[in-house]
Amino acid sequence: VFGQANSRLVSTLLDRPVKSLVPSDELTDQIRVQAYDYFRSVKSEDVGQYVDFTYQLLGDKAVDDVVTNVNEIIDASPTLERTIDRIWTRAIKESEVQE
Question: Up-side HSE of residue 73: CA atoms within 13 Å toward CB?
């Protein structure tokens, strides 16, 4: 059941143009401005709470350790790796066509 659902989900995503999966430039700019405004206004004690939460969640791992774990997940799943490769190849082809 889950395999079929995953297959349908991936098929649906691959049938869509890559551009429809990426936010517009306007939305990206809005997110950037809102994130900047948020970080400028956040209280230092709140930042401390976020840092504590992150350390509780990830431990004292370096960012490289977390990224390595993502790579291990991808390497452990040939289907996921092929899917990422297909999406990436399609994105490159579509960006070349648009240029």
Answer: 8
Three-class SS state of 20: helix
Q: What are the CA-CA distances from residue 51 to residues 54, 65, 69 (Å)?
A: 5, 17, 20
pLDDT band at 1 (very low <50, low <70, confident <90, very high): low
Sign of the C-alpha dihedral computed for residues 88, 89, 95 and 99 taken in this order: positive
Per DSSP, 16 falls in state S
pTM, two decimals, is 0.36
Q: Where are the alpha helices (DSSP H) in 1-99?
A: 2-15, 18-21, 25-41, 44-58, 63-76, 78-98
Indicate if the pLDDT at residue 18 is higher than 70: yes
Q: What is the mean pLDDT of the chain?
A: 79
7: amino acid identity, one letter: S
* Alpha-carbon distances, residue 32 vs 19, 47, 50, 64 (angstroms): 19, 19, 19, 24
Residue 42: DSSP 8-state? -
